[in-house]
Amino acid sequence: MRRDVTLLWALRSRCALACTYCYFGTVEEHKVSPPNELGVLSHIARNDLSASALMDFARTLDGSPVGRVVIAGGEPLDWPGALDLIQVIKEAGCEVVIATNGIPLTRPGVAERLLELKVDGVSVSLDSADPDTNDLRRPSRSGKTGHRDVVAGIRALLQARDAEPAPRVGLYTVVMRPAPHEITDVARFGAELGVDYYVPQPISLAPDHKLFDELAHTSDDVPAVARELAQLHAEPQGLAVPDASSLLRFAAAISTQGSGRVRDCFGGARLFFAQPDGSLWDCPSDRRIAATPPERHRTISGGDARVLFADRPACTDCSLFSRDCVNMWPLVLDMPRLLTSEAAS
Ligand SMILES: C[S@@+](CC[C@H](N)C(=O)[O-])C[C@H]1O[C@@H](n2cnc3c(N)ncnc32)[C@H](O)[C@@H]1O
Ligand code: SF4
Q: What is the CATH number of the domain that holds 310?
């Protein structure tokens, strides 16, 4: 059986950071008006699945078509059960990539345990080489942690890894309208730190988000962003970066606010998205989630991956493109090269 499915698994809702643009919204706004729409994420973890429900599903990955699990959240490594769950997923024969804000890597023993578990990749989010700029966009709720802790976490992981090949360690940057230069600045910073891969991703905000006008790109921003992406591709600083076609898609995606058509999309064929409440979608595009008819709503709660992913359509053209899609493509298309130690040489 081909294990060609990538599962993006937003494991838990909670997070100690309060990134201003986060897909999960803000705790403050959700305390006032808790979101009830299907598929809408929130750091207020009202419906997160129990640890035992998560474990039960993870045990069914063995023998299923799922070959790669990208663990995200919320902050997955703040959840005490995360490492045991990752062990089960690795034992099921899946490649595991963890998306983290990096701060939990500073806790004693976490980096060492990720090595023991033979986690394949750790993608750490950092939006700027400049601490103040990063912490303005990615503040902590306590006000006590920030850029320096993220950097300390990355150094702890690289030091624990020493000469071992895994985990590969990467940086993910959310690129925002006022600062296209962060694309190459963070690459340089990552190279100085000694990370292995780097993925810039465009900010995705709903038009009614309060930061939309300030941070979301418009078509006027395409030339500056395209220049930076071309520069990154020409001089990747020794890092593995998404290939030229991904970078082109990045530029194309920020040139439109509307929906678009994606040829041969792998959402629902080779990529699926599981949310903390167990909801299982073809992909994280809010347009595609909203268009999923009730009879096709599925959950991993009580589910079996060998059944859930057994009958899959081939990749099909999709007219429900949203900017979220751009951030999914590297998970399927680029991950193999990002995780290959020779990719940058
Ligand atoms: C939701 S976070 C979960 C994992 C972890 N807490 C972290 O920050 O890496 C996964 C990735 O989505 C990015 N992200 C969050 N909100 C976003 C948005 N509105 N547009 C683009 N990327 C976003 C984060 O910066 C991070 O790289
Ligand atoms: S660290 Fe990740 S999950 Fe937490 S607020 Fe920031 S982007 Fe969202």
A: 3.20.20.70
